[in-house]
Amino acid sequence: MNSFAEIIATIKKYDKIIILRHQNPDPDALGSQAGLATTIRQTFPNKKVLIGGNNTEGLKWLSTVQEVTDEDYKDALVIVTDTANQPRIDDQRFDDGAFLIKIDHHPNDDAYGDQLFVNIDASSCSEIIADLIDSSDELQLTKEVAYYLYAGIVGDTGRFLYPATTEHTMCVAGKFIALGVDTAAINNKMNEVTLKQAKLQGFIYDILQIDESGAALAVIDLDLMKKLGLTQEQANSVVSTPGRLMEVRSWMEAVQKDDGTFRMHIRSQGPVINEMAKEHDGGGHPLASGATAKDLDEVKQMFEELKDIVNQYNQKGE
């Protein structure tokens, strides 16, 4: 593990920096990426700083990417934020640069990079970027930087509702508020859904399978998305819906992709689910993970595994 001082020293060495994050980015991926890029640009205006990956339609209000060419990677420092393992990096040219840094808050099962800083106790990668800036005499926490990082923290803490929220998290967010960040506008934007998404949220309750253990499953296949006029990205946005039910302790949402496979969103209010996710081409946090199922049979298999996990948790009386 490297120190903030070592990472900042490396940043100062390179005139060209490319910052990446994970595929299908959430607000923390985008916030940590854009926040880090912005503070580097503002501190070192002569450096060329690019943010790469694919745009996410529903989060263009937060950040958009730039075109990154093969030539840009030559002699560049590449920094990857909020990405636990290499296959999830949203540009597989990430290793084509001269030097690679990983900054993350997920379990460090894939310790890639020439330098890395991982803090699994941080609420979000955006919180880590805020701490990186705070540790430096040169990097500045401006209002624009704070805007990105606040969005990232809010996204990964569920508006400060999730257990990952700590006293330090609130102190960091307080600094952003002191800088004048319009936190209400960010919160309102994150709460915003389209009418189609709202209808899907209601439909989730109709199709949700709830086991007596408290494990639950919702399958959103291509036919349902077509019926409701939803994109896969929009379908992915309702992952928190089952968690509002008193009867649900852990749940999965299986969103079918065009190739027939399913993107698995796994969430929990106690039972640890990330080890199971690792067995299905995924991973993440103990209470929030993602995985892939090759077909509906694997989705059903994962649901049986989730039932077992929740039953074991219940038997321990936790």
Tally of structural domains = 2
What's the architecture of the largest domain in CATH terms?
Alpha-Beta Complex
Secondary-structure element order, N to C:
HEHEHEEEHHHHHEEHHEEHEEH
Proportion of strand residues: 15-25%
Residue-averaged pLDDT: 95
Distance separating the two termini:
33 Å
Rounded radius of gyration (Å) = 20 Å
CATH topology of the largest domain: inorganic pyrophosphatase (n-terminal core)
CATH class of the largest domain: Alpha Beta
**Major sheet: order of its strands?**
6-7-8-9-11-10
Provide the structure class: alpha/beta
Oligomer: single chain
CATH superfamily of the largest domain: inorganic pyrophosphatase (n-terminal core)
Largest sheet: 6 strands, mixed
Characterize the structure shown.
The chain folds into 2 domains: 4-190, inorganic pyrophosphatase (n-terminal core) (Alpha-Beta Complex), CATH 3.90.1640.10; 195-315, Roll (Diaminopimelate Epimerase, Chain A, domain 1), CATH 3.10.310.30. It has 12 helices and 11 strands. It has helices at 4-13, 27-43, 70-73, 125-134, 143-157, 167-178, 183-191, 195-207, 222-228, 232-236, 274-278, 296-315; strands at residues 16-20, 48-51, 77-81, 99-104, 115-118, 209-210, 215-220, 250-256, 262-268, 283-284, 288-293. The strands form 2 sheets. It has a 6-stranded mixed beta sheet. α2 (27-43) runs parallel beside α4. The two termini are 33 Å apart. The mean pLDDT is 95.
